[in-house]
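Q: What would this chain look like folded?
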Amino acid sequence: MRKAVITGTGSYAPEQVLKNEYFNELLGEDVDTWLRENLTIEQRHWCADDESTVDLCEKAALKALESAGIAAKELDQIIISTDTPEYISPATASVLQHRLGAEGAGTFDLNTACAGFVSAIDTASKYILADEQYKHILVIGVYAMSKYLNKSDKKTVTLFADGAGAVVLSAKDNTDSGFLNAHQFTQGQYHDWMGIYAGGTHCPITETAVQNGKHQLQFVKKFPKELNPEMWTKMSLRMAREAGIEVCQVSKFFLTQININSIYEMLENLNLAKDKAKYIMHKYGYTGSAAIPMALDEAVRKGEIQKGDYIFLIGSGGGLSFAGAAFKF
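A: My prediction, written as structure tokens:
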């Protein structure tokens, strides 16, 4: 039976590192203590002025291709999940395809905000299962949110960061590894609570839009703190049930890392230890749709997951969008 298997991973964070102390000086107050004690964040990486989304994608992609042992010309599809694209149009994936020399690959971008990578790997898996022409698909989650931050807004500027994570999915026969199931949900009533609200057709970038800060990331309203833990708990139980396993058999959870306490609460709901999740927020800050594949790549390279392990990928982001995918590694 044909399966969609993770055969390669890669990640990249920009070279520019900003420690919490930078923001103490920028904002004129001690934010370091709060960030460490409440979110575990010690530092984050931001793009250089001449660095953009596709630069991050390219470096993560090359590592993933090397890990998978394939050349770019063998790719059949490239899917990039991001809400910080290279352009409004055309798709960032088309730029990356040209840079990689992946002339045989189709391309498209996908935006479900910070749930994007899981939505994209779900989509790619089903391409492979449904159509035999797809043998290798490159899936990337990327975030260059530093380009959209208001440096006087301590709610956003201290939290959000840049990075990219990439996975190669390959079609394999006669294996019990690979994609097991996935689900996506949306609670659209929250669509105007957090986002970048200028640049599209609803609000083109005008002088008024810029004056109102709508071209930058805004937290408009505070989300209910129980929302993520409750949704992630339900999604985990459903994915485990459909995979025919107990949730305690999951070797590692890879989750949206915008609030570490939400992860702790979900694990407590499931009666699981805190080390069941992979954490990278302390050194990378919040990297949005890149957080999950960056964490996955680090876990693979450190030998924290092994062949045959069950892994759950669970993302949530503005919209509000939720996506979960279960794999046997």
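Residues 227-243 form the longest helix (17 residues).
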